[in-house]
Design a protein that fits this description.
Elements: E1 3-7, E2 16-22, E3 25-29, H1 32-44, E4 45-49, H2 55-65, E5 72-73, H3 78-83, H4 91-103, E6 111-115, H5 121-129, E7 134-137, H6 147-158
Parallel strand pairs: 1-4, 1-6, 4-5, 6-7
Antiparallel strand pairs: 2-3
């Protein structure tokens, strides 16, 4: 299965924020273990960042991860997220972004994974309505992405 993997940063990757490493402000730094988990995800499909971190920070993270395929980015309008009372504040921007790439013919996938620490019942209902298979993974924010989460994605990709 060709997967598109929507990946949150805070609460999932839980990077250490280090000032002064990158020219464009603070750097997001992952442990080697967490970096390897992201690389395993990248071998399962194309990653798309679903994060409010600026492009400069996610680009720096990508450079340190040395991924073979450049991740995509889902634009998240911060004011709209802050004002949202939805159980999954990112759901609306994600669905709009997916519709845009589908309409543009850029949807090179037949399965979708969304890994985020804030996925509510609205995301579950949305996933059930999709024509393509969707796997939602909600790590505990205090723990973040685990090997078991990645194994779930690997199994899903083999179906």
């Amino acid at each position: 299965m060709k997967l598109l993997i929507l990946l949150d940063v805070d609460g999932v990757l839980n990077p250490v924020v280090r000032p002064g490493i990158d020219d464009d402000g603070p750097a997001l730094v992952l442990s080697e273990n967490r970096s390897e988990l992201v690389r395993r995800l990248a071998r399962c499909g194309r990653i798309a960042w679903v994060s409010t971190w600026p492009v400069a920070q996610t680009a720096g993270l990508e450079a340190r991860l040395r991924l073979h395929t450049e991740p995509l980015r889902v634009p998240l309008p911060r004011p709209a997220l802050d004002a949202s009372d939805a159980a999954t504040p990112k759901l609306r921007p994600v669905t709009r972004w997916l519709a845009r790439i589908d309409d543009a013919g850029d949807a090179d996938r037949n399965g979708l994974v969304w890994i985020d620490d804030v996925l509510g019942p609205d995301a579950q209902a949305w996933a059930a309505e999709q024509a393509e298979p969707v796997l939602l993974i909600k790590p505990l924010a205090a723990i973040g992405l685990t090997a078991e989460n990645v194994e779930s994605v690997e199994r899903f990709g083999r179906t």
